[in-house]
Write a structure and sequence with these properties.
The structure is a homodimer of 659-residue chains. By secondary structure, chain A is α/β, with parallel strands linked by helices. In chain A, the strands form 5 sheets. Chain A has a 6-stranded parallel β-sheet, with helices on both faces. A 5-stranded parallel β-sheet of chain A has the order 1-2-3-7-6, with helices on both faces. In chain A, helix 1 runs antiparallel to helix 2, helix 2 runs parallel beside helix 3 and helix 5 packs parallel to helix 7. The radius of gyration of chain A is 28 Å and the shape is elongated. The mean pLDDT of chain A is 96.
């Protein structure tokens, strides 16, 4: 096998793709090709013909702009990508999108592009592997789940705060199944990193509990190989810094110009000559590629076969029931929670964060793939499972993950965990959803069933003040395509929300809970919650108007309707809308049965009105919060924001008589 | 002066505040009191009677939950806070909100609470000071701006990615005017940091180019004092790790329970006994407080007087014109950009990011306090000023800041710069606004006139794919209370936007620009842009319908109206809406003159419809993008998303005839 020719081919194909597309990032293709080549040739336990093998080693191209390099490597290694896909790089309808996209390309384990996300996803995958390994054990020495996670990062990834957060946690948890290859070329898009990133990266990672290695010449495959071999034996996560030259071989090598601009024809000509490639686009060396593919197959096949034996052994352990490996193999999850006997006392008066703890407990005790935690707020978001163990560096046979004060990494780690089959949840305060928005967008983009739990859901938290009082956060989440936001009113609706969330297999969900106590509503219905919105309280005389509310405001709406009834006006209907997105997915007949056109709606929610006007007609009204909060006691704050019960009642009265 | 009694008093007052409020964080009050005491007594150059003195040293309480400690210290030091303010901690109407809020409390230089923001703001203040120092020089050795920036951080701050980003940049820029005091107590809200944060923090900071110091016993004022004195002499930023005991003196000392829960009466009684304080709430030792105040005044007064001399010297340098210190002293900025002679050729066809570079150049050459940069995308957002110098560790006499791939820190650093009087701007791609949302919210909350610039503003960027194609990002920004989002259609509107932005003194602004070329519109008007929305093209016959658009879609709307006119239908009006928030601030008469009720509007924007329904009536329509994009060429993507010119035209036709 001719390593030089194979690396040259990978470089050549990547450059041809970018040249043909007139768009892409040649710098990393030329600089980092030997790294990926070495990794795929000698280390990754993969099977190109079974690219979703659940026990494969994972690879995350965190420097997602290196997509051409990745596709080129995958093609050379025999994945289900055609030369036509390469020729149509960055075109719709091919397996070669501009940045790697999960679900489109065989061999792409994760969507990447926004820097820092990928490495944090890799940490999540490594953590997920550690957790699942304990849960799918065959015996003391064997598990159905046993693989390593690799990522390629650039300077940009390591400058992003999310990568620091995730890597700091990886060091604390001693995730020795994680190996990060750092394409260290001293250049970012705008210029030399000496301008922006003048730190000792390896020393920093060592301070964070990692092992580090240096490969001084990124063209020396043997040195890269040795470093990876050492890293695999480490009892810590490993960072291998590989010094490379961005755009190696190009006339623009070593400059920021070559980062993101196709090479010109003269440059390509001289480059191919240097690389020993014929000057023809998309040159394929069938014989050498075949050598490489056989080499990888020969190396991995024994492990692949062994895993199949393990799988049979595991099924035997499960008494022959192969469905017990279950959710590990796909995201299609089916769970009937509602029909269990929950027996909420009618007198129940409890903060939903506390009620939620009951569900979190139950789910962790009954669902094999679930795990989660909090960004250092478990004691107050109440997502901690006291009866089950903590996950830490010495024990992954647990359920409680301590993410630290790292909301952003938490989101991305949940994504990584979901990618390897964990039903993952994470919690913090609603106002801090801002911190993890980029990760949440990636959950939605990758269609991952990640569960976000947010408590302290409105200004009624009081004294912590405007930085901690969410206003626009519900709107922020609802505006993300594919995101489902749940804000239940009581324990029964919370049950319904969990039913919906558990069976949402291809979308993220956000569960939004109050800190304050709420009653169990007589008329609430868990099952109807699945429609997103339903008639909570029917008008007792001819319909006059509809109050629509979510969460704690549902109680306010109900009390107002009752007051009207006591005063002899029974025409007020109350609609509970725990999930607007799900309601908007129901058919028009249902929607019109709940919210009949021609009747005035008044929407009440302790958050921004932003987004609600979608379901409002000209004659409708909304009582919302569109300015920042203030610091004071709960009652002071509600009063100051014109949102006390009495003030809302007055506003409803005014809106109902409005012309 | 009795240090012990003063520190005890600070602790006692803080505990009394929390006890009276039944809410707050006693752990940090008891643990970190000696740190703040030492800093205020011996180091901060401040004047309690002139708390906004522009040359004061800045202090940022990054661990914002330590507000009671800060207020207690400020009270003892003689700032304009009364004992009544302390007694009403966390109540509306007093100077003692739950977390420190800029503008409410004398001596509070920055709003804090969401962890990590404060330390990044402090980096921004330190950078701002370095820049302004060069611009307000009196001679080689003297400047009108010459102070240090201090911050108190806890473990939570240092776990947050934004703190890493900002501190890494501070190390690269060798901001030796920045001293960070690290309240290192090994406990966060949920428990011991060994669970989550098992790294060598000082080694990490050293790897990032900082000097570090260790104070082993946080009660030893002399040791803290020595460490600060050393740090002031460093040529790097400094981190002083002070080992403290959370809740020192409480029966719960050293546990996470004492982090955020008031102490009980028995605990307070034994604590006060231990501290040598009488067991009475809000005990004030008038004599000792007075000693401390005199001590600080005697220490600082010579510097305060010297600065007044410097100010006189500076005014003399300016030929006696004191207004030339100008913007440095307040945020009230007044600039008439429109009436300059811009001479855009009518044939101008240019990407707005390029046109914007002309303005950025002009402003940097003409506004004394302006500075900004990009999160490693200046070469493509085109915010780089080639003619002016870069800011780096060896030169702060420049204009271009290289933030690195650190969007979040960029936002918070801009906030810090704005807090010290820099007209600060920063740029990245629109899709990455997600990364800096938390900082942007703080800009709005603190009412800082920070300028965010976003290019690559829609799916029409094409091949980079859905991770880089903004969809919900305009909605995200518009949903932030107080935020103004500008999306101009051409060079004239961009000029108008800049006029509005420069004179927006108490709110952040976001300027959103396309990557693609646009024509100069014949009918666009810079001045009318100031209304946020205006009639770009009048109907030529009786009004039938109105097309409302922003940015590049304004051109689409206009062409559609022209097509209708050519086909004999002159009733289509085109309204350009570069800033919806500003339009909604105009009076109803103006709004109705632009968008007369009863006439159908069709809104066209290459982004989520989320939020637009606010201005829509039942008969209106919207052509928007509510799903994620795809990777392909620009034309492929527009076609796939039903957003090509022809497709939009067809959709307009359908909407216009809809019943």
């Amino acid at each position: 096998m001719n390593d030089n020719m194979l690396v040259a081919s990978i470089r050549g194909l990547g450059i041809d793709m970018i040249n043909q597309a007139k768009s892409g990032h040649p710098g990393i293709v030329l600089g980092a090709a030997p790294i990926l080549y070495t990794l795929y040739k000698n280390h990754l336990n993969i099977n190109a013909s079974d690219s979703t093998w659940i026990n494969r080693d994972r690879f995350v191209m965190s420097a997602g702009h290196g997509s051409a390099l990745l596709y080129s490597v995958l093609f050379v290694c025999g994945y289900g990508i055609t030369i036509d896909d390469l020729k149509n790089f960055r075109h719709i309808g091919y397996k070669t999108p501009g940045h790697p996209e999960y679900g489109i390309t065989p061999g792409v384990d994760c969507s990447t592009g926004p820097l820092g996300q990928g490495i944090a996803n890799a940490v999540g995958m490594a953590l997920g592997q550690k957790i699942l390994k304990e849960r799918y054990r065959i015996d003391q020495s064997k598990s159905l789940v046993d693989y390593d996670v690799y990522a390629l990062v650039g300077d940009g990834d390591l400058m992003e705060g999310i990568s620091y957060e995730a890597c700091s946690l990886a060091g604390t948890l001693k995730l020795n199944n994680l190996i990060v290859l750092y394409d260290s070329n001293g250049i970012s898009l705008d210029g030399p990193t000496s301008k922006t990133f003048n730190e000792n990266v390896r020393a920093r990672f060592e301070a964070m509990g990692w092992d580090t290695y240096l490969v001084k010449d990124g063209n020396k495959i043997g040195d890269i190989d040795k470093a990876i071999s050492k890293a695999k034996k480490s009892n810590k996560p490993s960072l291998i810094e590989v010094k490379t030259v961005i755009g190696y071989g190009s006339m623009l090598a070593g400059t920021s110009t070559v980062h993101g601009k196709p090479l010109d024809d003269a440059d390509i000509e001289q480059l191919k000559k240097q690389l020993g490639l014929p000057n023809e686009p998309f040159y394929v060396n069938v014989e050498e590629f075949s050598h490489l593919r056989n080499h990888i197959a020969n190396r991995v096949n024994p492990k692949y076969m062994e895993w199949n034996d393990n799988y049979q052994a595991y099924v035997r352990l499960c008494g022959g029931d192969s469905t017990l490996a279950g959710y590990l193999f796909n995201n299609d999850f089916n769970y009937d929670l509602i029909n269990l006997d929950w027996k909420f006392p009618t007198s129940l008066k409890q903060a939903l964060r506390d009620t939620n703890n009951v569900f979190i407990n139950y789910l962790n005790r009954n669902i094999k793939t679930i795990a989660g935690g909090s960004a250092d707020l478990a004691s107050t978001t109440k997502t901690y499972v006291k009866e089950l163990a903590d996950i830490d560096a010495n024990n992954f046979n647990g359920n409680n993950i301590w993410f630290g004060v790292r909301e952003h990494a938490m989101g991305a780690i949940l994504n990584g965990m979901a990618l390897v089959g964990v039903k993952a949840y994470g919690s913090t305060f609603l106002s801090f959803v801002d911190y993890l928005k980029p990760a949440m967008r990636m959950s939605a983009l990758m269609k991952l069933p990640v569960i976000y739990i947010f408590t302290h859901d409105s200004i009624s938290i009081g004294p912590d003040g405007p930085t901690h009082q969410p206003i626009e956060q519900l709107a922020l989440m609802r505006s993300i395509p594919g995101m489902k936001v749940y804000r239940p009113a009581d324990a029964k609706e919370l049950l319904g929300c969990w039913q919906a969330i558990l069976n949402t297999n291809h979308n993220p969900s956000a569960l939004v809970l109050s800190r304050n106590e709420v009653d169990l509503l007589k008329e609430s219905k868990a099952l109807e919650t699945l429609n997103g919105g339903y008639i909570l309280h029917h008008e007792t005389t001819a319909l006059k108007a509809i109050l629509v509310a979510t969460g704690t405001e549902t109680h306010t709406a109900l009390h107002i309707a009752y007051e009207y009834e006591r005063a002899g006006e029974g025409g007020i209907r109350v609609v509970s809308m725990p999930c607007l997105e799900k309601f908007l997915e129901t058919d028009q007949n249902y929607q019109e049965s709940v919210l009949p056109p021609g009747y005035r709606k008044i929407i009440i929610e302790a958050g921004s009105s932003f987004g609600w006007h979608r379901i409002m007609k000209d004659y409708d009204g909304i009582i919302s919060l569109d300015t920042f909060g203030v610091s004071g006691t709960k009652d002071e704050v509600l009063q100051a924001m014109n949102f006390s019960y009495q003030q809302i009642f007055t506003r409803v009265q005014e809106l109902l008589v409005k012309k």
